[in-house]
Structures are given as structure tokens and as C-alpha cells.
């Protein structure tokens, strides 16, 4: 009787939340659990940002805001984009969103329907595929390969575009691999897209501050050739350790902006007002907490990669961005998901099997190193003992 429309049979989810729930349940029984599964900074939001939200509440910002977000916050976003990438974006193109996810939800909804192809990275953030399937469009995975440094290949991506393709999703720095696509490759992709003027691009740049080894971020807004069909997804969740605040932004081209505004009006009216004031403080205030956080991730990254490479049958490429390591575990003889499940049940180490990010993730697991050095070392020790106890290779 309560059957809903068929598209709900196709919507997926994010297994990181299921792993988090299982890890929490195990911890509640007294088990010592080390959670390297969830993708969020283990830092608190910087105090001046919290204070700005408290002040906004005390100042009486309790009502609805415009659906697209308050102007000072949209201006702060444009100033930040200009300062970091030299791009001119008008506040009329910027929309404040309740996190990064709603931008992918809305953009996939705007293009996805039966008969349409949408390209997305595999392995990649699981919600891309979930939403594509929900709309009835055909999900076309773009393989992200270890031998390519987990960067996307422009040639391979362009080779998958057909007259049915309406949207291409790209993500660098990437989840789950930590891969960063070099500028030369992005240049090639943008040049090749000239042949496909009907393909919109959604660039997920949520990890744009999390780069190592002197890498600089390549923002797709810096390519005027595709500005009229580029959707930029970004937000505060990772950069300012604000995952629970639900604050993001999108830059929408042309009439997509109005589509998105109407979706917001229909769905959630506006983003929490006090949170928007916190967002202004984040962008306009001191950036030292973010810099220190990224330095700390960099230090842990080296510990994780060194430790993983010492485990039997495991090899780990050095990630250049985000806060994930994506070791190749195929030579352990274990399939990735059973390995992740057994590690959690037997040793209390929570990580995510690569196939949860797409079929090309088989043979890999994802570890988030947004955890203390002590936790990382404990996890590595337990993984080593486990693999020694259960040799399959
Ligand atoms: N995009 C990528 C690649 C992510 O990894 C995440 C979160 O893990 C998001 C978007 C979603 O961010 P938010 O929590 O702001 O919705």
C-alpha cells in the first residue's frame, strides 16, 4: 500500500554512514574502535567562526533569509574566489547551499532523465551515481586509475562523451583516492569540450584547500571557455571543519541559477541564518586554523602511507590532496569489502571498501587520516596483525 515511485528503488546512499553506525554500535558494547571510515576533519570549527554564529543568534538573525543566501556571504564568496584564483564572479551567480551535497543533487536533477548519459568518476563520491540512477539517466563511469596517479584522464573522459551526454562530473582533489588532476590534463579536457557545447560540467572542488607537496588548486572557473556551462560545487565542511553546520555554495551559470533558487524555495527555503554569518567569519577572518589543519594532515599522510606500505600485500600511492589514503590491497588476496568488514568486526578498525565508491574501487580500501597519530598507528598495527593472522595470498 505504501509503495512509492520506482525511482526510490534506485536511489543509493553512502556506506561511510553505515560503517559509522556499525563502529558506533561496536564502541557502545565496550569495544575499542578506531574509526578511519568517516570523511570529516577531526578538528573543531575555529572559535571565531563559532562566535560569529552565536553573535548572529544574539543579534536576532532568527528569520528566513533570501533563498539564495544573504548578500554579504555571497560577496565574501566572490571575494574569496577572486583572491585565490583571480576570477570575477558576481554575487548574483553564487548561491548559498545547505552543504556541498545539495549542489550535486540539484545539478544531476536538472540534467538527468531517461535517455541521457551522465559521466562521473569511478571510484568517486557515491552520491553522484546514486542521484544519476535516481533520475533515470544512464550512469557512465569515468575510470580513475592508480597508474595515472588517481587523476582523471582527459582523453579517456572525452572518449566517453556521446551525443546523449548532458553532464560531466569532475572532482579534484578527489574523494576517495586523494588524487589531484594536473593542470595540463584539465587544459586538455577543457579544449576537448569545445566539440561538445551541450555538455555541462559540475566541478566538485570541496577539497580545494587540502593539497600537499606544493600542489596548487586548479579551479575550473579559471577557464572562460566553459564558464557558461560550469557548475562549481564548494563549501565550508572540510576547509573549516564545519561538516555538521551544513553550509556550502554553488556558482550556477545562466538559467540554472533560477532553477536552483526555485528548488531551494520548494525544498528548504534558505540555509540556517546564523550559519550563514558563521560562513562570513570563516571566509573573511584569519585562515591560520585551516593552514595548521592542512599541515597536520600532511604530517599524518606521511605516517599513513609509510605504515601502509609496510603491511604485507599492501601498497599505497602517496595522495596529493584531500585527507584520504587509498591503498591497493589486491595482493593480500582479500576482496576489499570483506577485508573492511572483517577488520571492523575482528580488530575494531573502521575503513571503507573501495567498491563502495564504484566498481573500479575493487582492490582498494579508503582510510581517512583525519584522526590522531595515535589512532592511525594503532589502526596500522592492528591491520598488520590481522593480515599476518589471515594470509590469503
Ligand atoms: N563532495 C565530495 C567529494 C565529498 O567528499 C563530500 C563529503 O564527504 C561532499 C561533496 C559533501 O560535502 P557536504 O558535507 O558539505 O555536503
Strand order of the largest sheet: 2-8-7-6-5-3-4
Q: How many distinct beta strands?
A: 12
CATH class of the largest domain: Alpha Beta
State the end-to-end CA separation.
Answer: 50 Å
Number of domains: 2
For this entry, what is the oligomeric state of its chains? single chain
Tell me what the structure shows.
With 393 residues, the protein is of the alpha/beta class. The protein has a seven-stranded mixed β-sheet with strand order 2-8-7-6-5-3-4, sandwiched between helices. The protein has two domains: 141 residues, Aspartate Aminotransferase, domain 1, CATH 3.90.1150.10; 236 residues, Type I PLP-dependent aspartate aminotransferase-like (Major domain) (Aspartate Aminotransferase, domain 2, 3-Layer(aba) Sandwich), CATH 3.40.640. It is built from 13 helices and twelve strands. α4 runs parallel beside α10. The model has no long low-confidence stretch (mean pLDDT 97). Helix content is 40%, strand content 13%. Pyridoxal-5'-phosphate binds next to loops.
Helices and strands, with pairings:
Blueprint: H1 7-10, H2 15-28, E1 34-35, H3 47-58, H4 71-85, E2 94-97, H5 101-111, E3 117-122, H6 126-135, E4 138-143, H7 154-159, E5 165-171, H8 183-193, E6 200-204, E7 230-235, E8 248-251, H9 256-267, H10 273-284, H11 288-309, E9 324-325, H12 336-347, E10 349-350, E11 352-353, E12 365-368, H13 373-389
Parallel strand pairs: 1-10, 3-4, 3-5, 5-6, 6-7
Antiparallel strand pairs: 2-8, 7-8, 9-12, 11-12
Bound molecules: pyridoxal-5'-phosphate.
